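Appendix B, example 12.
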Amino acid sequence: MWQEIIYPVAFVLLVLLPAPLLGNYLYRVFEGKSRWLAPLERATQACCGTDGREQDWKSYALSLLAFNGAGFGLLFLILLAQGLLPLNPQQLPGLNWQLAFNTAVSFMTNTNWQAYSGEASLSYFSQMVGLTTQNFVSAATGAAVAIALFRGIARQQTTHLGNFWQDLVRFCLYVLLPMALILALLLVWQGVPQSLSAYLPFHGLEGQEQLLPLGPAASQIAIKQLGSNGGGFFGINSAHPFENPTALSNWLEMVALLTLAAAMVCTLGRYVKDLAHSRAILIAMTIMLVLGLCLAIGQELKPDPALAHLTSEAGNWEGKESRFGPVLSSIWEVATTAASNGSVNAMHDSFAPLAGMVAMINMLLGEVVFGGVGAGIYGMMLFVLLTVFLCGLMVGRTPTYLGKRLGITEMKWVVASMLVMPVGVLVIGGITLLMPDSATVIGHDGPHGLSRLIYAYASAAGNNGSAFAGFAAADSWQCIAIGLAMLLGRFGYIIPVLAIAGQLARAPRQETSEGDFPISGPLFITLLIVTVLLMGGLSFLPVLALGPVAEHLSLLGGAF
């Protein structure tokens, strides 16, 4: 039973300890103070056709949208024409347009929702040139938006937020590529395949002939974890022994999925020259992560009430890999949904209802408990601004944040961003319940069916990508609807964040006084957590009560 204490503590420490050092490195990279790959950086920027001149928020946003639109178009065409392209030893055909649209949107938005099984549907060319490329640049897009926001807060009386193309190149070149290379080599060492060979035929234990899937898996798995992407090379993701073969590979992948997200919080402190403030935000995120870990692990260490009389085995082992067990599976579940990563090493559909609810809540809050690379901290900053604004009004003072006055324009954008998750989950997801084939799509009657639906759309709108098994993700309508939810969840936050950055950058800085609301310390941390839970959670309390909570109560009733 020592594992239930030692493993979570070790995981949290491994995520937090390198964060200050890595956060400082990120600051130096984005501000051009780390130039050990300067010749390659200049050549890459020349290929992008940019001279590095700084942009205002509208130009920054247009560059971002143009780049992401081009990436979507290229990936969409690759998936459609897959059967005509090289590196396809299994002669896999192209995807239908609905699935190609869903997949292209998914990887372009850093969601990596997969309505297909990788080894059965995608060629090596599609996996490497299409998906892996988007794993890098979608993560870099989120980081660039966060850095633009940091600059907007730190600067005054200017319209300049940096250059999108330069930020994109620097993050890929100095951060993602070297870290992914190191992690990929470690995964190959642990037994993850990195091959262009055709699938190998073999005879199973009962004599049937089967194919052993191979491919360039290690390189994609490394960046899927580091970039908060999550899309697996194989259908069952990191539960597959070729993606995650050993205990060491499990720890490497599990820690990697939160490393850069935690470091980005420390980067904020360097930009605004207030490390105490960034530490307070990091502590708030950590407290919410630990609460989720405690609830999920506690639930998964209990046997299924319906099966308790059949076994004396401690814990809920259904849907878990025996080499990981309930504790490591629960840590991964909480971390991957807190990080907008979406990779899995166990089947979330088999978790206890309240443990599954933890994953849902992490996503429904807007993926701000660390969240994705860049996306987590800029999502949390919206709650920080809201907290400061509300507290300022309560004490009768003009709300200010780090010397910047918060006006009606900034708060309109904040409120607009708060509508993204309710619209993406409750409105678009609710349309599915009105469809004539909704029962077939959900695949389960009762509260668990509702949980599957809410999880799917929370995952899409939260740009997470994980799912409960049994949801018919490849259904034509679902491919389109979930694709729309992913677009809303990505750009419904990015545009307001950049607009707020532009507003704050133009504002003059005022001298802080003792009457200003403190943005560090226990009071701020408490109020920030309360704001996140109230604003992020109240909208979804009814559906959570009808889904996982009702399922939990029904299981308890059945057990007695």
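The radius of gyration is 23 Å. The chain has 21 helices and four strands.
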